[in-house]
Amino acid sequence: MTGERRGRVILLNGASSSGKTSIGRALLPLLAEPWFFVPMDAIGEMRSTVHTRVLDDGEIEAMLVRTRVGYHRLVAGLASAGNDVIMDYPLSESWRVADLVATLDGFDVTLVEVRCSAEELERRERARGDRPVGLARSQAAIYALGAWDIAVDTTNTTPAECARIIVRELDRLTEPNAFARLREQQAREQ
């Protein structure tokens, strides 16, 4: 397997209910090469939900951190074998950004910011019923990176149209990309 290419990564970063999953699904038939769509929610769904004991808050937090760190390495593993991967993942904590930047060092990562108005996010949360209303508003840190390669807004744009915008913009990207700029920023801060 030596000499094989490294896979590319498209990271859809946005608040809960912003449309990341719908955009990820809409991207698959538009991309020329085969891509894996690996949303974080799918990883969480693989975990057992019935336990013989109740976990305390500290144990839950540790489990969630392990899950997220594992997700980062899962994506890196797929990409290191030459697979192209679409991530659906909110960068809502600074440690996630730092770990992903380090874990995906050397990979071509396109960071897509998925935006949506606060009012529409709350409408979607109420309609979904599987997220607490106000969760998306509480995730303001997601948009604090100040770095992205492509931005789409799902307030009035369909996931299919957002996917078309992303595919069109992929060919227009310039270097350094958002992940390279984040890596440089982290190096300056250390």
Spell out the key features of this protein:
Rossmann fold, CPT, globular
Percent helix, as a range, is 40-55%
Report how far apart the termini are: 35 Å
Per DSSP E runs of 2 or more residues, the count of β-strands stands at 5
Number of domains: 1
Shape summary:
globular
Let me know the CATH homologous superfamily: P-loop containing nucleotide triphosphate hydrolases
Number of helices: 7
Oligomer: single chain
Spans of at least 5 consecutive residues with low confidence: none
| Mean pLDDT figure | 88
Structural class of the secondary elements? alpha/beta
Would you state the CATH class?
Answer: Alpha Beta
Second-tier CATH architecture = 3-Layer(aba) Sandwich
Largest beta sheet: what is the strand line-up? 2-3-1-4-5
How would a crystallographer describe the biggest sheet? 5 strands, parallel
Radius of gyration based on Cα positions: 17 Å
Query: CATH topology, what is it called?
Result: Rossmann fold
SSE string, helices as H and strands as E: EHEHHEHEHEHH
InterPro entries: CPT (IPR012853), P-loop_NTPase (IPR027417)
Protein name: Chloramphenicol phosphotransferase CPT family protein
